Known about the structure:
The first copy, chain A, is mainly beta. Chain A has 4 helices and 15 strands. Chain A has helices at 55-63, 76-84, 127-130, 160-163; strands at 3-6, 15-16, 18-24, 27-33, 36-40, 45-51, 65-70, 98-99, 108-109, 114-125, 136-149, 153-154, 157-158, 166-169, 173-183. In chain A, the strands form 4 sheets. Chain A has a 7-stranded antiparallel beta sheet. Strand 15 of chain A pairs antiparallel with strand 15 (173-183) of chain B, so a sheet runs across the interface.
Amino acid sequence: MSKNKIRPGVYLYPMPVSLIGTNVNGKPNFMALAWVNVVEFKPPIFAIASYETHHTNVGIKENRTFSINIPSEGMVEVTDYVGLVSGKDLDKSEVFEVFYGDLKTAPMITSAPVNMECKLLKRIAMKELTNTEKGHELFIGEVISAYADDSYIKNKIPDISKVKPFVYSIDNNYWKVGEHLGKAFSMGKNYKKG
Amino acid sequence: MSKNKIRPGVYLYPMPVSLIGTNVNGKPNFMALAWVNVVEFKPPIFAIASYETHHTNVGIKENRTFSINIPSEGMVEVTDYVGLVSGKDLDKSEVFEVFYGDLKTAPMITSAPVNMECKLLKRIAMKELTNTEKGHELFIGEVISAYADDSYIKNKIPDISKVKPFVYSIDNNYWKVGEHLGKAFSMGKNYKKG
Lengths: 194, 194
């Protein structure tokens, strides 16, 4: 093994895939997003990063709400579609059947197995940290309510084997979740340095 | 399909798995972390969230540097091990063969296929947003240098099929990355609403 420098980059393998829902000028809009992360557990909080010119950013700043929807394998084509086309150029309000929850302004996707509606807590403009002219905005939002169909639930949470989410790799490919590897916070107990 | 409310939570399916490297009191320390996210591309920037009492947080605040290492399938047991045991209770400096790069204080794991060393740009204490007594800290760090062995590289970036990363689900399981589903920013062009 010999380590070589490669160009500095965002080599996270793999990334989750989400669909971010917002209302823009009163109409639902959705965007595919892999730059999504959990940042707190109690209360549940996410951070999502989206380029400042995106229609989604307009909606989040307009309503201070957004939704995170987890698509399943069968939704990969439509997920890619809403990632390709901007709400500025095309009205995406009819792409999905939509429902609203407690926050009233965060549209959620009925066909997505898991939906979370979030209230914006904080916005960080990355360009202020990097002294660049444009950049991504980091939106930190608290999950106010979460939704799933009973058919996806096991032990009170959505079951990954039923949800069938998929992942993204930075060479621009989508992949299924594969075989079970082991139990977390458990299998490490057996570790002995070789 | 009928949507039901479930308990608000961090239902991200699935999450990536990383190993965060820090120096604490001059000794390398590593922690498994799924709460890791890309937040900017140019320059490359990550956000990672770690509970404030973690040894890792001490190291990041001490040196203003940390590393993100992507483990492969074969490292799942040792990844879980360093996620189970705190550096406060056990010296983890001998668990991995370590190397240092340009930042000098961000230890990286030789056996991990991909390594990125990051310079801290900003820290956010989540408890200040939530009015709770304790909480996670969000560390925003720029990738200064990245490393990989030639054997993992294809078209100048690490190849997911060679890296063989794995993912985590919140029911505490690890999973392999599975079958190829399609080409991103491409397959959506064929989408027609049914």
